[in-house]
Structure formats: structure tokens, C-alpha cells
Design goal:
The protein has 2 domains: 217 residues, Ribosomal Protein S5, domain 2 (2-Layer Sandwich); 168 residues, GHMP kinase, C-terminal domain (Alpha-Beta Plaits, 2-Layer Sandwich). The two termini are 27 Å apart. It is globular and about 60 Å long. The protein is built from 11 helices and 14 strands. The longest helix is centred in the last third of the chain and has 25 residues. It has 412 residues and is α+β, with helices and mostly antiparallel strands.
């Protein structure tokens, strides 16, 4: 196994350049391939995956990069700039190990590729990411997407409905990914992720990482497995306001939401709340506990908001689209219960700014950050004002981040 990286490294800020340099430092030669996979930012669609619901998200300009080169001894060596644990494994044993837990998602993607009939050999790989882990920005999805695309580049193949077709291209690069290619890779990664985390929530990340498109929103229907991109064209910017605070029991709180949603669906005799209409929920109020009804009310309403927001985006009505973000946050605060005083205060401050079209809690919730649609010429003033107001009100420091909406994962 190669030695770990030195603690201090003088490297450029571009994540692709950083990753290439780290690879060369680790292995003594440059990588043959590099994949860049973007972070994901949820605009609408609270916890859609485990509700078979609808989600609107964007791929943003924070990237995870994976640099790789093939090797011929049947081994895979995995290194990350973020974790001290490195791992060298044989192709014959791709089971996750507790010694290097961050490699689990890499291995489950490799297992799924093998189950689909993809034949691949060993390789060296270095991962470097700008995406903060565990914060709801889709770091896991980016890693899975980058892994699948790395194997595609190193050992050319094309996924089909029934398996995989090997592509022998000589020295030629693989052709650009089609929409169908991206959807099939996303489906494979989501299956892999379900096996790794044993929960369906959060796996929309890989869909956004693969299917994102610059100046577009990704509409994902988790019930039918379809993905569409909608134009986000106008003089607006996407701004993240990050408190840096996350509930210490976020996993338990998220699990409680899933429990109440599943209980509501069971009492309503439906597979998921996706098939429940508002009038049906109102009529069945007496059959649910108060908490089940509150959770279901938000999730059913959120699907309705996504449908309405789709129409607004198609017509280019960004002001109306922003109003659905405000409505979503109000519902999350009153009924879903995944916001909290800091995030509610942030949205109230954003609403009071004339340049903000919409704002809401994003990601898993229970602290951390909001997403805001802000007129482009108001961004600097908006960020300065909301940072100052948050500091005055709470004594805490707010981090604002202007995000570009970018294309999905690709070779860099």
C-alpha cells in the first residue's frame, strides 16, 4: 500500500488539478482518466425518494473528482484526500470492510456492475471532493456516479436493459453519455446505494449528479423512474445560506419522519403517500394520528407544489416558482417539523429582502442550510445583508454560497 499523503501540500484550487496532483504524489505517475461529479441541491420535494414522490433539484458547481489508472495485478487501490483510511482489495473480494468505511459505496457500485455482466480489471484511484459529506449536498451520489463512470472509461462498456455490452475501442475514448446511458447508470447506482445504506432516502443525489444540466432543473419522478430537465432561465442566482448547525440526532429524526409517513400510508391502505390526493387525506383525517396526518399533509402538498412548479418553470414564471419555495418551507415548519428556529429565521430574513424570489429549507433539514432564489443583480447585497442580520439575531456566523447550475458528471 502506498504511504498516506503528507499533511501539507501546495496544490492549485481547481478540484480536477488537485486530484491529478494527489494521484501523482500517491502513485508516482499521472492518471489516465478523471471524472468530475457535481453536488446536488434540492429546490422542492421533501424526502421524495422514500415517499415515491416528485423532486426538483439542480447540479451545482461543487465537485467530487475521481482520478484513476488501470493496473494488471487484479487489485484495486482506493485513496481519499478526506480520510486517512486507504484500502487495497482484490477483485475477487469487493465486500465492504470497517477498516475503510468510505470505500463502501465504491465497492457496492462495482458489485452491481459485475452483476450486470461488466468485466473490469484492477485500477488505482484517488478521490478528492469539494462537497461536504453528510450535509445534504449529495456527496454519496457523486461518489457512486464517479465510480460507475470511471469503470466505463477504464473498461469500456454500455449498459443495456438486460446487462452490459463490452466496447472494444482501442485507444479511442468512450462516446459521450446519452440520456438513456445516464438513466441506466443512475438506476444501477441507486440499487447499489440501497444495498449499502439500507434506506431509500437520499439516493436521488446520484440522479442529479448524472442527469444535471446547466441552466436547468432536474425533475425526478421516483415512482416511475423518469427524469426530465426544465429550463431555469432568467436573471436569478441560486444562493445557499449555511448555518453550519446540524441536529446531533438527525438520523433518528429522519427515521421518525419515515415511520410516520409509512404509518399514514398503511392506515390509508396505499403503498405510498404519492397516490393520496388532498381531498382523500382530508376525508381520512380521523383514521390517522395527529403526527401521521401532519407528515402526510406536508408530503402530499409537496407533490402538488412540484407539479405546479413544473408549470411555472415551463412558462418562465420564476416569481411564481419562488413562491412555491416559500410555501414549501412554511409547510415544512408547521407540519413536517424538519426546520427549526435558525432556518425559520433565515427564510423570514430572505423573504424580507426585495431581491429574493423564494427560499426554503433544503436537504434533509433539521438544521444546516436554506436554498434561495435571488435576482442576479441583488446577490451581493442579499448575501451581505442576510449574513449581518443572522449574526445580529443569533450571534452565529452564516456562510453564503453563490451556486452555478452545471452539467452532470462527465470525464474531465
Amino acid at each position: 500500500m502506498t504511504p498516506p499523503f503528507p499533511k501539507r501540500i501546495a496544490v492549485p484550487r481547481d478540484p480536477a488539478s488537485i486530484t491529478r496532483k494527489l494521484f501523482k504524489q500517491a502513485f508516482g505517475y499521472g492518471p489516465t482518466h478523471l471524472i468530475k461529479a457535481p453536488a446536488r441541491l434540492e429546490l422542492l420535494g421533501s424526502h421524495a425518494e422514500w415517499n415515491a414522490g416528485l423532486s426538483l433539484s439542480v447540479a451545482i458547481d461543487q465537485h467530487l473528482c475521481l482520478a484513476a489508472a488501470p493496473r494488471t495485478d487484479g487489485k484495486i487501490e482506493l485513496i481519499s484526500s478526506a480520510y486517512p483510511e486507504q484500502e487495497t482489495v482484490w477483485l475477487s473480494n469487493l465486500e465492504p470492510t470497517p477498516e475503510a468505511p468510505w470505500t463502501a459505496l465504491v465497492k457496492v457500485v462495482l458489485q452491481q456492475l459485475r452483476l450486470r455482466g461488466v468485466h473490469f480489471g484492477g485500477f488505482n484511484a484517488v478521490v478528492h471532493s469539494q462537497i461536504p459529506p453528510g450535509a445534504g449536498f449529495g456527496s454519496s451520489g457523486a461518489l457512486m456516479a464517479a465510480t460507475a463512470l470511471t469503470v466505463r472509461e477504464l473498461y469500456p462498456h454500455k449498459l443495456t436493459e438486460t446487462g452490459a455490452v463490452v466496447r472494444r475501442l482501442g485507444r479511442e475514448r468512450m462516446p459521450a453519455l446519452t440520456k438513456l446511458d445516464r438513466l441506466r447508470i443512475a438506476a444501477l447506482c441507486r440499487t447499489a446505494g440501497q444495498g449499502a445504506v439500507r434506506e431509500p432516502g437520499g439516493l436521488l443525489d446520484v440522479t442529479s449528479a448524472l442527469c444535471g444540466k446547466a441552466f436547468h432543473v432536474v425533475l425526478a419522478d421516483t415512482q416511475h423512474g423518469t427524469v426530465e430537465t426544465l429550463p431555469l432561465i432568467g436573471e436569478v442566482a441560486v444562493v445557499v445560506c449555511d448555518t453550519g448547525r446540524v441536529s446531533p440526532i438527525i438520523e433518528a429524526e429522519s427515521a421518525a419522519l419515515r415511520y410516520h409517513a409509512a404509518g399514514a400510508a398503511q392506515r390509508l391502505s396505499v403503498k405510498s403517500l404519492r397516490s393520496v390526493e388532498p381531498q382523500q387525506l382530508k376525508a381520512a383525517c380521523g383514521r390517522l394520528t395527529p403526527r401521521q396526518h401532519a407528515v402526510a399533509y406536508h408530503l402530499v402538498g409537496e407533490n402538488q407544489r412540484v407539479v405546479a412548479a413544473e408549470r411555472a418553470l415551463h412558462s418562465g414564471d420564476l416569481e411564481q416558482f419562488g413562491q412555491y419555495l416559500f410555501q414549501s418551507h412554511a409547510s415544512a415548519s408547521e407540519f413536517f417539523g424538519n426546520t427549526g428556529p435558525a432556518l425559520d429565521r433565515l427564510v423570514a430574513l430572505a423573504r424580507s429582502h426585495p431581491g429574493c424570489l423564494g427560499a426554503r429549507v433544503s436537504g434533509t433539514g433539521f438544521g444546516s442550510y436554506t436554498v434561495n432564489l435571488v435576482l442576479w443583480n441583488e446577490v451581493e447585497e442579499f448575501c451581505a445583508r442576510i449574513e449581518a442580520a443572522f449574526a445580529q439575531a443569533t450571534g452565529g456566523k452564516l456562510k453564503t454560497m453563490r451556486c452555478r447550475v452545471v452539467d452532470g458528471a462527465a470525464a474531465g
